[in-house]
């Protein structure tokens, strides 16, 4: 005799069984308690993250001094990020060659809310010295404030007349927060790794695996030793 399969929608069975209804109401009470604890955990985690971001701030300032001595540092790091790099057009890279600094200013109470500041040297594309995008994030929503790019005549990479062009810089006119999260939470804290081409830990593991493979190949190539007669 085959075992009956579980119902696809458990609520249908509950609606037709008073005992299950009573049990389900208790399940919902427990679920609400778990959700309340989860919310408290997220709030505490946000406060803890904000605390340590404040501690890291002076270290980021020291890092900035080092980075400014490395030509095209941020352009290279952005290009090597698997998602951000895929969004860059050739003209975007010309602009990013003038990018001298990226700064993330986080709110004291919540590390998720932050201001992204990209600082540029004088360039032929726009008059801004900084491109700024602000993110206010809470548990229910994310609000984005854009600061317009002041393009120089004939240098707008986002529009040609009435036609929109493909460009990373379109993002500074959009409401999306996803790229801001990638820059703030992946690129910015791991800038040196992305400048080198990606995740340094993965590269180290790859090198170790490659060395192990070479050792295995060498062992396979060695002829078996003859047994000595006793």
UniProtKB/TrEMBL annotation:
<protein>
    <submittedName>
        <fullName>NAP-domain-containing protein</fullName>
    </submittedName>
</protein>
<feature type="compositionally biased region" description="Acidic residues">
    <location>
        <begin position="199"/>
        <end position="219"/>
    </location>
</feature>
<keyword id="KW-0175">Coiled coil</keyword>
<dbReference type="InterPro" id="IPR002164">
    <property type="entry name" value="NAP_family"/>
</dbReference>
<comment type="similarity">
    <text>Belongs to the nucleosome assembly protein (NAP) family.</text>
</comment>
<feature type="coiled-coil region">
    <location>
        <begin position="20"/>
        <end position="47"/>
    </location>
</feature>
<feature type="region of interest" description="Disordered">
    <location>
        <begin position="193"/>
        <end position="230"/>
    </location>
</feature>
<dbReference type="InterPro" id="IPR037231">
    <property type="entry name" value="NAP-like_sf"/>
</dbReference>
<dbReference type="GO" id="GO:0006334">
    <property type="term" value="P:nucleosome assembly"/>
</dbReference>
<dbReference type="Pfam" id="PF00956">
    <property type="entry name" value="NAP"/>
</dbReference>
<dbReference type="GO" id="GO:0005634">
    <property type="term" value="C:nucleus"/>
</dbReference>
